[in-house]
Every structure is written in C-alpha cells, then in structure tokens.
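Bit of a strange request maybe. I'm writing a small parser for structure token strings and I need a real example to test against, not something I typed by hand. Could someone generate the tokens for this chain?
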Amino acid sequence: MSSLPDPPVMGLHSKIQNLRPLGLLRLGGAYECTLAGQSTLHRQKRHCRDAGGPQEIERLSIHLTSERWKSSTMEDALSTPYAIPRYSVGLIREGTISIQEYPTISCSKEFADVFGTMFEQYDREHFSIACIDAKHKIIGFHTIAVGTLTTALVHPREVFKTAILLSSAACALFHNHPSGDPTPSREDRELTKRLEQAGELLGIHVLDHIIFGANNRYYSFADEGFITGKPAS
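Reply from user aminoacidic:
Good idea to test on real output. This should exercise your parser:
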C-alpha cells in the first residue's frame, strides 16, 4: 500500500519573507509543488507489462490515493482547518507468474506444483494469498507479509483485502518454513482456523492453507481435514 507524499511545508520559517505562493497542482497521477522557483515532481509510477506464456497469474499490490491537498496558496494550506481526506482504492499489477498447467486448481498438489518452488527459495517466512474465481481459476497472487526466520505477523484484514478488491469467490493461503520442516505450529493452526472463520463471514471460502518446507515437502490443512476445503458456492 502506498500513498502520495505530502507537499513540503516544514522548514520554511527562516525564508518566510521571501516566499511566493506555493501552488499545489494535481497532475493526474502526480502532484507538482512549486516553491521559490523550484519544482519537485512526485510521480506515482505504474508498470503494466504483459508477459508471455500460456497463462499468467497477476502479482498485485494495493494502492491508496489521497485527494486532501487542493489548496492554491501556501497561506490556504497552512490556515485551512483539518479536513477528512477522501480516498480511492485500487490494485496495481506488479507482473505475472507464468505457469504451464492447471488453468483451474482443484487440489493441494496442484497448488504445490505452481507455488512450491517459489517458497522454497525464501530465507524468511513469507505469507501469501492466491485469489480464485467461482470457476477455480487463479485471478491474482499477493504477498501479504514477510517476516523473520521463524515468524510472520498476519491479520485477517490484510489477508482478505486483496481478495475483496478482486471480488474473489475463494482463496488459498501459503507460507513457508525456512527450517525446511512444514509441520504446522500451534500458532499456524490457530491462525488457519481464524482465517477460515473470517472468510466464511466475508463469503470468500478458504480452500486450503499450505505450508511449504524443503525438498518438495508441504503440509495441507485441507488434506488433513483441519479445514473443509470445499469449493465456494
């Protein structure tokens, strides 16, 4: 999640007599701030590039844009009382993951075939989500948290944010154990149950939560019967 930087208004006291009005002009995806003849452009970059391959899973990040700064002069910007910012929320495509098989996903082995190699190379815990439509096609992939060697902090509101924006019918969750042992901890089990319950409230079914270890080993909560793993209706 990112937001446009606030215009520079600090550190002006020593030059206040020499300043001409500060213009804050919205330029599409950018702000131009003009101060004493100097122009600084804060531009938001968005790269959308199609990659080759039979199927591409989009990597996504969440974008938050503020429309608070609309004052025409420095005096207005400094004297205006606090106003509640208005936001627009959207997703930014950050590339794709090429896969050769499985246009639709139906079991843990297929998830492991697609994502297992990616997670095995990480030296810290990564927690990610694959967003899935009603026909079991993966429509997006997002890394939610990057932690330490033994833990990653995860909360339901961050987990389901991308799935909600993509209007997902279901999702699959993944994280890795850098130790190489995919056996779930007590905290892994508690988190999985909490996320399954949150998904039920949101109408986004958690199909599986897979822990990746070393040498192509993985643990599937759906295969072990800890969660139902049934398709969303």
